[in-house]
Amino acid sequence: MLDNVKCECGHANPVGTTLCESCGAPLADGTAANQKLDMRYEGAARRSQVYQKTIVDRVWNFFSSVRNAVIMIVLTLIASAIGTIFPQERYIPVPKPAEQYYPEAYGTLGLIYYKLGFHNLYSSWWFIALMLGIGISLVICSLDRVVPLYRALKKQRVKRDKKFLQIQKVNAELDASGKDAEQLAAALEESLKKKRYHVRREQNALLGEKGRFSRWGPYINHIGLIIFLAGCLMRLIPGFYLDQYVWVREGQTVPVPETNYYLKSVEFVKEYYQDDEFPEKLDLDGVVVKEYKTKAVLYENENASIPGAEPKLKQVAQHDIQVNHPLKYEGLLLYQSGEQENQLQALNLKLMDTATKQSLGSVKLDLLSPAKEVKASKDVTVQVLQYFPDFALDENKQPITKSTEPNNPAFIVNTISPKTPNGEKQWIFLGNTLTADGKEPIITYAFAKPDLVDMSGLMVRKDNSIPVIFFGAAISMIGLVMGFYWQHRRIWFQTEGDKLLVAAHTNKNWFGVKNEVVKILEANGYHISAAQLEKEAKQS
Prior knowledge:
By secondary structure, the chain is of the alpha+beta class.
């Protein structure tokens, strides 16, 4: 247990205090009388300066350090800047997995970018840790400083020790002989009130104070920043924040990520400007897009709360999604963000007897959800044994699919016909076929024009944390205004014998407070300039 420090006036002060809480006199282990004291915390002891032994003390001291807070902020800014070098995962321009896209698009740098989590920066564990560190630092920095400051200002007395007045940056000792101390104090009190000071009097000692609330500005700013950070971190709570990207083909219904909704693209429309819509002198090469539009229908899955149940879709909204005109429904926003034209939807194939060249019908192989069995004609059936949407070979030369998107579709089919009652297995690639045994096929597949559709890229947004973030920003702005546009000014007048002791302090704008002291003294018969006040302070 640390012992309190006792002042000459008899008051017991907490360890680390440099000015007596009662009379204001510099303590023995504090600042000498001929030195100017840092009055930022009224000489009160901060916890981080006194307790430094236990683990709790060290953690407290780490987060109470402004230097450490600045380092964390700088690291966060650097990380945010690096996160803009390549697009974030949700803005990938093609529907590919992140682990595949970044190395393919950006090589080794892209792989490092992905491995370090920069592809999904704001959800990475280390970025969240930095944000939490900044928030904790704001809380501890504020508590470490505001508590002793509040106690010191609340307990401040009017009558102060002479040494306290002498260590102020602005101070003077004037002749008061021949003047009635009571009348002089009353006149000075009236002058202070005219300057809108809140005046307290204790015998022949006066304390004029105004703008004390401005001292709380930085801490209110900190409260706003803490609320702001809390709002940002609330986005990690499921349901509070959604920022996804979804690709949907014409006629396709897809689930909206992390919601109970499904989205159907009825049609994608791309309109172009006509020649008569441009001024005659405007020479444009090619065509200019006028509008991107997705005619969309939003459904809600009524069975979302039943695990494993088939989706039961109920239409809840219908809207033409255009750039800057999203579909809005109960806080969910769907923005038009991208498009890919002429994407493969289905392969159309004609079947023919290789020997007789006789037509055996045709089949359509859907590339998104192919049927297990397709009838080409009454006597011919095509069985889909395996499907590889994005065909490739692995290290062992075995067929795999690199993604679920039909970028390079390949089928293994079994054709059952009167000539092939046990079936004939074939590989079907884009524009080519191959029998399993490498021989000439009994049934030949001929490619017709495939089905092509346009694909819309939509940004999915939902942010329930916005009110909290805006509220925190507003509180922070109030704190900034309080701290920047007002000053905490104090003026002390104290008569001791035939001397009038004058002192003043402000947290900023010393020129202003010196001028006010000069005007108050002039109104009471003392002629002294601001420069003389400063000179007096240097000599004292």
